[in-house]
Each structure stands twice: as structure tokens, then as C-alpha cells.
Amino acid sequence: MDRLPTDQLMALDRRHVWHPYAPMPNTGPVFAVRSAQGVHLELETGERLVDGMSSWWTCIHGYNHPRLNRAAQEQMGRMSHVMFGGLTHQPAVQLAHRLVQITPEPLQQVFFCDSGSVAVEVAMKLAIQYWHNRGEPQKQHFLTIRNGYHGDTFAAMAVCDPVNGMHHLFRNSLVEQYFADAPQIPFEGVWDEKDIASFETILQCHHREIAAAIFEPVVQGAGGMRVYSPQYVRRARELCDQYGVLLILDEIATGFGRTGKLFACEYADVTPDILCVGKALTGGFMSLAATLTTEHISETFAQGEAGVFMHGPTFMGNPLACAVALENLNLLESYDWAARIQAIETQLKQELTPCRDLPAVKDVRVLGAIGVVELHEPVDMAVVQPQFVQHGVWLRPFGRLVYTMPPYIIEPGQLRQITQAIHTILS
């Protein structure tokens, strides 16, 4: 591939490439990446940035990892893709088995998806079709909690926060769902049953039409980067059981160690009926997600009207993605990742806590390899984004949130560069 001069590259980008959450043509700052290695991004203009985002929380082992590269190269030598309808292959079967081994009991069935949003869509369709199979087709709606985020496709968007998710733009096209008040008690706070009263009231009134409750356990991601009490998750599980409603937990952002547990639901010692995973599944190498469920749920489909689950992505179970994901999990298990996350958490707490004293700052919160500084006012991206680049770090704030989710392999000095940049710029 012929390389373009940087000015020509950027001109073509602005003319033709539509970036996420950006206008067209894009008037905001965009930086061209030449290469990536370890925790660093190298720009076309020569700057070398410490990546504090893990490319939207996916590259947990950094970039260009030789073990992941080797797994991809070996799989490409056999086949990069084959349809999954009527066919199967070693990478998908082995990955499914590994996911069953590392996720909580009694999750046994694995449905592979293309992305996190699709994993949520699959989970919601599973729940609706499950109740249809059980002779309760009226259970078509969902209960969720405010400040959540589950993806940008239509069903997923319908259970995102109505304000942060910009529901008003699509109000006439989205199915209206039930929203409970967001949890307010922090991770280590004293439990008060009032925190889940709204959730319980909705179930009392509408459980006959609710197929499942869906939310992100313990940590809400792009809807607000909020950390809340594991007891909320425990009580939600109990209430779902009490009122005959399935529980879907969205661990797309929190799964595979990010919070300090392999899965955030482990803090509550809770197993969902349906679990969504993605993002870090392939270590950021390529897109892959999965929806897991129980034998109890899957066995109802053979007796249902359709006899099968009505979903089948074209690239489902892609061999290349599955092979890399399997090696990514092998890599994660090859070292004491929990100790690494604990060290990152300790450093984030020490170095971000001084931000609390800044006039612009409303709150600071840390859990695992997640550090969040919430401001009183929204970030001016046109000003702040280039300043982070000037400080040699890559962060992507949104709304009133400046946050970091660094790769697990980050060294203390590299993480300090990120936290110092946050404090300096917010000052």
C-alpha cells in the first residue's frame, strides 16, 4: 500500500471519512496514527503517545503483541473465514469451551457475535423468544437503569440512558422500555434498600410484560462512568427471581479483569441468565463478542414455535477472531493479572485523588484499572484533546468526564504520565 503524505491523508480523511460521534466534514481534532507498539501510539507527525484508553478499553495487552500476532498469522495460514451455518471449526469450539470455563456457573451456551451492540441485541432477542417459547409472548419489554449504555443499534439504544443516549432524536422509532433510577450508593458505601426501590416498584407493576432486566454490573460505562454498590446487583438478581424476569448482565466493558475481578458480577457473587462480553475479548485485535446463557434457557428453543433461535450474523464465529481471542485469554491467564490491576488501581487512587481539590472537578472515582475525573462542566474537546497530545498521552474525554482505562501492561512511569497530564490540564 502506497503511503500518502500526512497533509494529503488528513485532507482525504476530512473529505470522506465519517468518524464516530463526529460531524461531517469533521471539524474537530483528528490525529493520524502511523503505528502502535506496547502502550504507545506513534502519530504520522512523529509524536509518541502513551495510550490511556486501550482503544476504547479493548487492547488490554497493548498493541502489536507477538503472541496475538502469531496466533493470527497461524490461523490465516489455515483459513481466515468460513460461514458458521452448518459448519464449525477448532477456534470457535475451543473459545466457547474456554468462555464456559471462566464465566460463572451455570452459563453453558455461547452465541458468537460481531460486536458488543450485537451481543446486546442477541441477549434481548433471546429473552423475548425464551418467554414466547414458554407460552408468555406478552413479555416483550425490558427494565434497565438510568445512566447505562449498551450500544448504538436500535434495540440496544432503547435501553441506553434516555438523556445521555440522545433518545429524543429517535423517540418515534425506539421501543419504549422501563427505566429505574440509577444506583446512588458507591462501591464501598453502606447499603440502603431505598437505592433499589424504583427497580422493585417497576417489577411489581410490570413484571408480566418484562422479559428481562439488563444493566452493567458495578460499573456503568459510556453512560456516565459510575461505580456503584455490588449489593444493588445482588438485590436485582433476587427481585428478578421473585417476579419471574430474566437477568441480563452487560459485561462488554467490564469483562476480562478490568474491574479487578475477571467479571464484575463476581463482586456481587451473582450469575445472570444471560451474559454479554466483548471489547477486550480479542485484546483489541479485531471485533468479536459473545452472548452466553444457560441450558435451561437454550433448551426451550427446540420446543418453541420457530424451533431455533432467530439470529445468525454473516461473520459469526469468525475463525481468525476466535483464534486470536483464545490466545488473548491464554495470555491473560499466563501472568498475575489481578495483581497488575491492583497495582494500577492503587496508583490511580494516589495520583488522581489530588484532582478533587481542583475547582473544575466534581468527583474522582477509581475501581480496578478504571480512573474517572468528573467535572462540573462539559469538556471542550477542541481545546482539551490537543493538550493531552502535547503532554504525550492519548485520552478521549466525553461530556463532563475525563477518564483512563489503560492497558494492563502499563508501567508506573507511563501511568504517571497520564495522571500528571490529567491534573495539569484540568488545573
Written description of the protein model:
- The chain is α/β, with parallel strands linked by helices.
- It folds into 2 domains: 31-64 and 336-426, Alpha-Beta Complex (Aspartate Aminotransferase, domain 1), CATH 3.90.1150; 70-333, Type I PLP-dependent aspartate aminotransferase-like (Major domain) (Aspartate Aminotransferase, domain 2), CATH 3.40.640.
- Helices cover 34% and strands 16% of the residues.
- It contains 13 helices and 14 strands.
- The chain has helices at residues 6-16, 54-57, 66-76, 90-102, 116-133, 154-158, 197-206, 230-243, 295-298, 319-333, 337-352, 381-390, 412-426; strands at 33-37, 40-43, 48-51, 107-113, 141-145, 178-180, 210-215, 246-250, 274-277, 289-294, 361-367, 370-375, 393-394, 401-404.
- The protein has a 7-stranded mixed beta sheet with strand order 4-10-9-8-7-5-6, sandwiched between helices. A 4-stranded mixed beta sheet has the order 1-2-3-13.
- Helix 8 (230-243) links the parallel strand 7 (210-215) and strand 8.
- Helix 4 runs parallel beside helix 10 (319-333).
- The longest helix is centred in the first third of the chain and has 18 residues, at 116-133.
- The radius of gyration is 22 Å and the shape is globular.
- It starts with 5 loop residues before the first helix and ends with a helix.
- The mean pLDDT is 96.
